[in-house]
Structures are given as structure tokens and as C-alpha cells.
Amino acid sequence: MALPAYQQEFARLATDMAAGRPSDEGPSPSADPEGGKVELQPGVVLDAPPLGKEFGDVLEGPEASYRPGEQVRVVFASAHPGNELHRDGTYLEVQRRDDSGWTAVADDGDWSTKHHWARRGVAASTATVTWDVPADTTPGVYRVVHHGDAKDVTGRITPFTGASGTFGISAS
């Protein structure tokens, strides 16, 4: 197994870095004839929503209202985030309702948001989205949206989206 070798080298490098000394480069790795990468985690076999739920369903919704400085928390029925890395997109959005519909005010690239994935049993997953309401947040009606991609037993990956109920943000 390659994992113990990687762990050994990571530990050696970390020790050298902490001590402020250069590391020995060691031998060069042999060329990989297949051109593949080393996977340290097993792949996703399949995703399944919790019994009686669909992907994107809200399992724990937000409170009715919040003030700046408080934390909004929503839990969604989800799938493994490794199915699609969303490099050109996002796993979450915080949206504010305006005259034209819904406008994104934060996503997973914002410091105020967090996306926490957890496996629940063999194939079910949850995504917990939190948003620390910034001090300068405009009062109004908001919701949290979660984007994910589920893998079925045949390996087909299907995107899904879920949205929380609305909640208010009041002035501080």
C-alpha cells in the first residue's frame, strides 16, 4: 500500500518544515505508465437520500428570523460532494428576495458561509450549510440554496438543488 509511505513522507516534511530546515529530496518516483493519480480515498459507489426524502429536501430548516451576528443553519438531504467538484459553480448560495426574484448575496467562496458534508449510514448524506450573518447585511427576506450531484447505482450522476424556507434578517 502506498498510504503508509505517503504518511511517512508527509510526517518527515512537516518535521523539517517545523524545524526550519531543508528536506532531503530523496529518490525520484518512477514514472506511472498509466499516467494516473494516486487515490487515497475510495470512490463513491452510490448515493441515496434518507428514507422518505429526496435529494435537496430540507431536513432541518432555518428559524423565522435572525439579526446580524447570528448564525443561520440549514441541513439538506444531500450526496457526496466528490461526485462533482463545482469548480465553476458553488455548493451553496444565500439569496435575498428583491423585486426581480432571488439574488445571491453569498456562496461557498465567502468567509461567512460553511458547507459541511457528512455520510449517514451506507449511502445517505447530509449537507449542513451555515451562514454567519454579517454586520452590514441588508434587512429583508432570505433563503439558503444547496446544489449537489447524486450518483445512482449505474454510476450516472444527476444534479439537484434544494432551497430552504424563507427567513427574515432584521436590522441590528
TrEMBL record:
Superkingdom field: Bacteria
GO BP field: ceramide catabolic process; long-chain fatty acid biosynthetic process; sphingosine biosynthetic process
Record region (Disordered): 12-66
Gene3D superfamilies assigned to the protein according to its UniProt record, in alphabetical order: Neutral/alkaline non-lysosomal ceramidase, C-terminal domain
Signal sequence interval, chain numbering: none
Any GO CC annotation of this UniProt entry: membrane
Domain Neutral/alkaline non-lysosomal ceramidase C-terminal residues, every copy: 10-168
Family from the record: Belongs to the neutral ceramidase family.
PANTHER family documented for this protein: CERAMIDASE, NEUTRAL CERAMIDASE
The protein's name in its UniProt record: Neutral/alkaline non-lysosomal ceramidase C-terminal domain-containing protein
